[in-house]
């Protein structure tokens, strides 16, 4: 027998591992990684932790919700972050219901702390008292779409908990089905979550390594899995290292296990193996970023994995990069903010290319100076989102509505994956914002878009809120722009156009008056008659009779 050597690589990904979110009542559910086996138990024996600095809220949730039929045998309560951390460290909590705004540590800070722990990860439910853009952005960082408000409706809350229980059931079933698979055992071993019986199943006499392989967002994940599986099945060798196992970790990340019979701790060969693996995937149309370690013995795999995980969490990297753990030096967490005054000037001048060029140079300089950590990338992103929000608000533009789309969500989700991904996100924000700023500078553009939409959607909901969302402005400002351009309020114009359309239908069709009212957007027949008479000085039936006789 001999001690095995291991070459370790990791592929980078975003920090969050959000799987799903469920919205109900006043809740935002954030789903985190599966509970490790040592914390598993029947889903009918779950525990919930309620956290709020308001003891009345905690008491109300504890007493008004019938937890036992939902599968919760124990309800824990805490009134601050410290109390919550103690319970989470000692108990296998399945569900955490936490207020966001708490004086001794927010719910978001509790969640961030929880993510750094190596033990189980429960579901999180956030409660909040009022809408705040900063909270929304921080929630979005965990791949959520939004956050909602108190007060909590007990019935809606119960429905949400039921959905959470269903998710816990599904995760438990998947863990049970896959707990004995080799790929699962390898993942449990390198993360330090394995029992001795499963560890004994691993081939310690060969060279093996768990890696994280992060595929670029442009790559189809099904294709990634098929290609890596083929390399594994065909026993491909990279600089004396053979790919002997792989498994999906999370999101776009894949674990890799390389093996070599050589006992020589040759760092160069490990680096060469990673280069050859990366190049092979590139030839097959797959772009990945890799981190690689010097060869290590089997017993040091968990320790090496932890170091690479730390590197992936902290180091800002370039897309498609290959980095060695041997060359990694933790960087000083010194955040040097960009010149936001200059950026505001460029935004005011509606010069998106100049803003993007500024950030490209800023990222290059801070990276070269060793100041561009992932934490600093996150700070930069949050600061810039806030700056854009203020700039848009100054022009009466709703940033929340403007960026409420899949493109924003996807770009933000992967914005910390690489320096290029962050620049992509910044470029999207700038171009989208400046395009709309330029558009609304011409009031006639906004008014004409509203007019055309109204004319083509007379039968739809044409409330001020709907029309304001169409142009991403607040309702009052939207109404003022329209009236300045056409001399009519939005309401008056809508009534005018609906009645004109109703006049045409009364004369030229045999539709019932009730049907005509519905066609032009009135579900209340009496109100339609009132509006029609107000404009034409006669009720619809009389109007039809007189005008059809003339026809």
Automatic annotation (TrEMBL):
<keyword id="KW-0804">Transcription</keyword>
<dbReference type="Pfam" id="PF12833">
    <property type="entry name" value="HTH_18"/>
</dbReference>
<feature type="domain" description="HTH araC/xylS-type">
    <location>
        <begin position="448"/>
        <end position="546"/>
    </location>
</feature>
<keyword id="KW-0805">Transcription regulation</keyword>
<protein>
    <submittedName>
        <fullName>Response regulator</fullName>
    </submittedName>
</protein>
<feature type="modified residue" description="4-aspartylphosphate">
    <location>
        <position position="99"/>
    </location>
</feature>
<dbReference type="InterPro" id="IPR001789">
    <property type="entry name" value="Sig_transdc_resp-reg_receiver"/>
</dbReference>
<dbReference type="GO" id="GO:0000160">
    <property type="term" value="P:phosphorelay signal transduction system"/>
</dbReference>
<dbReference type="InterPro" id="IPR009057">
    <property type="entry name" value="Homeodomain-like_sf"/>
</dbReference>
<feature type="domain" description="Response regulatory">
    <location>
        <begin position="47"/>
        <end position="165"/>
    </location>
</feature>
<dbReference type="InterPro" id="IPR020449">
    <property type="entry name" value="Tscrpt_reg_AraC-type_HTH"/>
</dbReference>
<keyword id="KW-0238">DNA-binding</keyword>
<dbReference type="GO" id="GO:0043565">
    <property type="term" value="F:sequence-specific DNA binding"/>
</dbReference>
<dbReference type="InterPro" id="IPR018060">
    <property type="entry name" value="HTH_AraC"/>
</dbReference>
<dbReference type="GO" id="GO:0003700">
    <property type="term" value="F:DNA-binding transcription factor activity"/>
</dbReference>
<keyword id="KW-0597">Phosphoprotein</keyword>
<dbReference type="InterPro" id="IPR018062">
    <property type="entry name" value="HTH_AraC-typ_CS"/>
</dbReference>
<dbReference type="InterPro" id="IPR011006">
    <property type="entry name" value="CheY-like_superfamily"/>
</dbReference>
<dbReference type="Pfam" id="PF00072">
    <property type="entry name" value="Response_reg"/>
</dbReference>
């Amino acid at each position: 027998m001999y001690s095995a050597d291991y070459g370790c690589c990791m592929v980078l990904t975003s920090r969050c591992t959000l799987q799903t979110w469920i919205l109900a009542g006043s809740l935002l559910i954030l789903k985190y990684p599966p509970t490790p086996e040592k914390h598993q138990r029947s889903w009918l024996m779950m525990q919930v932790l309620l956290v709020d600095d308001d003891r009345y809220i905690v008491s109300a949730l504890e007493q008004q919700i019938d937890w036992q039929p939902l599968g919760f045998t124990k309800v824990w309560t805490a009134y601050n972050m410290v109390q919550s951390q103690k319970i989470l460290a000692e108990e296998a909590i399945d569900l955490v219901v936490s207020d966001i705004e708490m004086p001794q540590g927010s719910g978001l800070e509790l969640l961030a702390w929880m993510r750094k722990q190596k033990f189980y990860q429960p579901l999180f439910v956030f409660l909040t008292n009022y809408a705040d853009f900063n909270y929304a952005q921080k929630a979005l960082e965990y791949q959520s779409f939004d956050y909602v408000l108190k007060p909590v409706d007990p019935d809606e809350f119960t429905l949400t908990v039921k959905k959470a229980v269903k998710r816990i059931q599904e995760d438990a079933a998947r863990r049970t089905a896959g707990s004995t698979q080799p790929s699962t055992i390898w993942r449990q071993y390198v993360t330090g979550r394995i029992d001795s019986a499963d560890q004994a199943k691993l081939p310690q006499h060969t060279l093996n390594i768990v890696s994280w392989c992060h595929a670029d967002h442009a790559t189809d994940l099904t294709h990634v899995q098929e290609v890596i599986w083929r390399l594994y099945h065909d026993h491909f060798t990279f600089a004396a290292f053979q790919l002997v196992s792989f498994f999906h970790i999370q999101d776009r990340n894949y674990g890799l296990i390389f093996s070599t019979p050589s006992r020589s701790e040759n760092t160069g060969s490990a680096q060469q193996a990673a280069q050859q693996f990366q190049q092979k995937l590139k030839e097959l149309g797959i772009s990945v970023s890799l981190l690689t370690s010097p060869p290590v013995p089997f017993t040091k795999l968990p320790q090496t994995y932890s170091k690479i995980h730390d590197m992936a969490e902290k180091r800002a990297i370039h897309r498609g990069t290959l980095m060695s753990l041997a060359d990694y030096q933790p960087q000083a967490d010194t955040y040097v903010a960009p010149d936001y005054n200059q950026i505001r000037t460029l935004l005011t001048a509606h010069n998106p290319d100049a803003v993007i060029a500024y950030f490209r140079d800023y990222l290059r300089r801070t990276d070269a100076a060793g100041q561009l950590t992932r934490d600093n990338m996150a700070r930069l992103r949050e600061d810039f989102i806030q700056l854009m929000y203020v700039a848009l608000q100054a022009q009466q533009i709703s940033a929340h509505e403007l960026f409420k789309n899949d493109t924003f969500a996807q770009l933000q989700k992967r914005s910390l994956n690489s320096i290029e991904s962050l620049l992509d996100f910044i470029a999207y924000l700038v171009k989208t914002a400046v395009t709309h700023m330029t558009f609304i500078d011409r009031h006639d553009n906004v008014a004409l878009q509203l007019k055309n939409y109204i004319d083509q959607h007379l039968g739809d909901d044409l409330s001020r809120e709907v029309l304001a969302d169409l142009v991403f402005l607040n309702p009052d400002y939207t109404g003022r722009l329209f009236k300045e351009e056409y001399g009519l309020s939005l309401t008056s114009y809508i009534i005018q156009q609906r009645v004109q359309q109703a006049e045409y239908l009364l004369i030229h069709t045999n539709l019932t008056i009730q049907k005509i009212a519905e066609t032009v957007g009135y579900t209340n027949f009496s109100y339609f008659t009132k509006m029609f008479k107000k404009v034409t000085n006669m009720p619809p039936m009389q109007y039809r009779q007189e005008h059809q006789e003339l026809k």
